[in-house]
Amino acid sequence: MASQASQVLASPHPAISSENRPKADFHPGIWGDMFIICPDTDIDAATELQYEELKAQVRKMIMEPVDDSNQKLPFIDAVQRLGVSYHFEKEIEDELENIYRDTNNNDADTDLYTTALRFRLLREHGFGISCDAFNKFKDEAGNFKPSLTSDVQGLLELYEASYMRVHGEDILDEAISFTTAQLTLALPTLNHPLSEQVGHALK
Fold first, then answer.
1. What total of structural domains would you count in the chain?
2. Which of 71, 122, 167, 173 is the most buried (most CB within 10 A)?
3. Which residue, 155, 188, 175, 174, is CA-closest to 24?
4. In degrees rounded to 5, what are phi and psi of residue 99?
């Protein structure tokens, strides 16, 4: 973890909210059961080799250069949700540090989903990212823009990101109220698997 980033978060703010943050139950099944099912201790050499090859592929995907560092965010999130990020701690930390450094350069055109996902992942890893990035999603009256209500995936990510708030971050307090109301309204109209993800997060 970048010590500089950790200090930015730790020194000017108290600890992140201790509320139990619900997390949407996503289904990133691109690797099937390979990582999900824990192998027996007596696995054969061929299976062990398959595991190592798969880990090498994932590691390469995390580290592979891209034009926009924000493109890495959904993949890193999927790896974490699968519970296998401990295999790639250094690679994930390095990529998030790059994303943190590029935040100001890549923020202007990012949508709600990307902005919220980046905020959540960086806060989870101790980087001192500011919640000011969400100001662009408010209108002149200081309310969240009505157009956001059609972006359910973005609302869901903002809902989760809001639980990484610290004391005094009023915009994230407002975001929890706004997203809870909008996601509750949208839930009956959603299709699977998004309906399941939203329902799980709101529990």
1. 1
2. 122
3. 155
4. -65, -40
Q: What is the pTM of this model?
A: 0.79
Query: pLDDT for 91-129, tens place per residue?
Result: 999 999 999 998 877 677 789 999 999 999 999 999 999
**The pair of three-digit structure tokens given for residue 8, joined into one six-digit string:** 């930015």
Of the candidates 126, 29, 128, 38, which has an alpha carbon nearest to the alpha carbon of residue 81?
29
CA max distance for the chain: 64
Q: What is the dihedral of CA 185, 81, 74, 195, to 10 degrees?
A: -20
For residues 69 and 110, the answer to whether their CB atoms sit within 8 Å is: no
The H-assigned helical ranges of 147-193 are 152-162, 170-186
Q: What is the DSSP string of 91-150?
A: HHHHHHHHHHHHHHHH-TT--HHHHHHHHHHHHHTT----GGGGGGGB-TTSSBPGGGGG
For tokens 């350069």, the residue is: 105
Instruction: Report the 10 Å Cβ neighbour count for 59.
Output: 16
CA neighbor of 61 nearest in space, from 49, 71, 48, 52? 71
Amino acid residing at 12: P
- For tokens 């109209």, name the residue: 189
Tokens of 2: 């970048």
User: 104 near 111, Cβ under 8 Å?
Assistant: no
Check which CATH number belongs to the domain holding 74 and give it. 1.50.10.130
